[in-house]
Amino acid sequence: IVKTVKGAELENVLCQHPFYPERKLVTMLGDFVTTDAGTGLVHTAPGFGEDDFNIGVKYGLDVYVPVDDKGYMTEDTGEDFAGLFYEDA
């Protein structure tokens, strides 16, 4: 442990993505995240779920939904996924 801080101090901190070094991630706070079954860190997908949507609105994120109203992946997901049913993607 290098330093101990309160979670609120981590809001908007930029982090390096663990698998894609060229990508930067920003930390956002959400009161629906717990440490009961893990670290308390989660990904956010504003197009999928009320809690994620609300975090997206709070932080000005785009609401991206790459699934059509019948459950199929849209063209912008790329040739490997476009047209696949979401459970098969």
Q: Describe it for me?
A:
The chain is built from one helix and two strands, in the order E-E-H. It is mostly loops. A two-stranded antiparallel sheet has the order 1-2. A hairpin with a 7-residue loop joins strand 1 (14-16) and strand 2. The protein has one domain: Valyl/Leucyl/Isoleucyl-tRNA synthetase, editing domain (Isoleucyl-tRNA Synthetase, domain 2, Alpha-Beta Complex), CATH 3.90.740.10. The protein has one helix at residues 50-59; strands spanning 14-16, 24-26. The chain is elongated.
Q: CATH superfamily name?
A: Valyl/Leucyl/Isoleucyl-tRNA synthetase, editing domain
**Shape annotation:** elongated
| Structural class by helix and strand composition | little secondary structure
> Order of SSEs, N→C?
EEH
- Radius of gyration over C-alpha positions, nearest whole angstrom: 16 Å
Oligomer: single chain
Rounded mean pLDDT score: 91
Helix content: 10-25%
CATH-scheme architecture: Alpha-Beta Complex
Strand order of the largest sheet: 1-2
Largest sheet: 2 strands, antiparallel
Can you summarize this structure?
The protein is largely without helices or strands and 89 residues long. The protein contains 1 helix and 2 strands, in the order E-E-H.
Q: In terms of topology, how is this protein built?
A:
Layout: E1 14-16, E2 24-26, H1 50-59
Antiparallel strand pairs: 1-2
GO biological process, one term: isoleucyl-tRNA aminoacylation
Catalytic activity: tRNA(Ile) + L-isoleucine + ATP = L-isoleucyl-tRNA(Ile) + AMP + diphosphate
GO molecular function: aminoacyl-tRNA deacylase activity; ATP binding; isoleucine-tRNA ligase activity
